[in-house]
């Protein structure tokens, strides 16, 4: 099983069009407001910080480079070759390695695990963008990467985020400039029920170790000049509690 060609091409088109400028992409907020906050929640649950870290759905690598400063081996993995081109251009020193990766494809997850061993996984806002029929396979792939010793940190939009996004998209003045390309390329956010993420994890053989709520910070601003933040939930999961 692998992602649909429509889904893959939607992301290729988006990233081919996306500018390299810092903060030009809707969700590409500075790490101090994103991965930095998440890492503070994640680190306490790591059984071994020396394991490789996989930034799954790394996009242009902004969070990847931040994480690469804190972990000995960092792999930025993404479905889109165009996204990885952005990531490599922004990382001339090669802080991380970048890999074309279909998280839904079982053999790809098994191959990467064979190369890295058990790994820690960071994934922000990817599951809700996947096709509904692909979501369990994606979480199964994460479980493969995590193995016995790794931990996964997932951040996903809450159900309550969708009406916020739809309200922005349907504004009389049109969607905000950084949100418009997402809808134009057919990757409008889907809805993942809040209770579904823990269910996907349990079905994949993982235990939910911690969870909570934290706004997902974007790079866009509303008409009143305040930064747009979307309700989101985070979860830490692993094979077992040590």
TrEMBL record:
GO molecular function: methyltransferase activity
A Pfam short name: Methyltransf_25
UniProt record, GO biological process: methylation
Annotated coiled-coil segments of the chain: none
Top-rank taxon: Bacteria
Residue ranges of every copy of the Methyltransferase domain listed in the record: 54-148
UniProt-listed CDD domains: AdoMet_MTases (cd02440)
Keyword GTP-binding: no
Keywords assigned: Methyltransferase, Transferase
Organism: Streptomyces muensis
Protein name (record): Methyltransferase domain-containing protein
């Amino acid at each position: 099983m692998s992602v649909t060609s429509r889904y893959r091409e939607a992301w290729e088109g988006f990233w081919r069009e996306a500018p390299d400028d810092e903060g030009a992409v809707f969700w590409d907020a500075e790490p101090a407001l994103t991965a930095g906050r998440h890492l503070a929640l994640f680190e306490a649950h790591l059984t071994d910080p020396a394991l490789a870290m996989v930034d799954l759905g790394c996009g242009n690598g902004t969070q990847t480079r931040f994480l690469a400063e804190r972990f000995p081996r960092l792999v930025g993995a993404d479905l889109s070759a165009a996204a990885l081109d952005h990531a490599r251009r922004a990382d001339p020193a090669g802080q991380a390695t970048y890999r074309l990766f279909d998280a839904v494809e079982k053999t790809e997850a098994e191959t990467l695990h064979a190369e890295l061993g058990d790994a820690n996984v960071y994934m922000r806002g990817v599951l809700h963008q996947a096709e509904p029929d692909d979501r369990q396979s994606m979480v199964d792939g994460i479980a493969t990467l995590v193995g016995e010793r790794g931990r996964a940190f997932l951040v996903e939009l809450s159900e309550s985020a969708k009406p916020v996004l739809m309200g922005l998209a349907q504004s009389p003045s049109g969607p905000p400039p950084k949100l418009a390309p997402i809808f134009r390329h057919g990757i409008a956010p889907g809805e993942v029920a809040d209770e579904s993420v823990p269910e996907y994890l349990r079905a994949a053989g993982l235990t939910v170790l911690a969870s909570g709520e934290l706004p997902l910070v974007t790079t866009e601003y509303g008409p009143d000049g305040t930064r747009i933040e979307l309700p989101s939930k985070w979860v830490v999961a692993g094979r077992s509690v040590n």
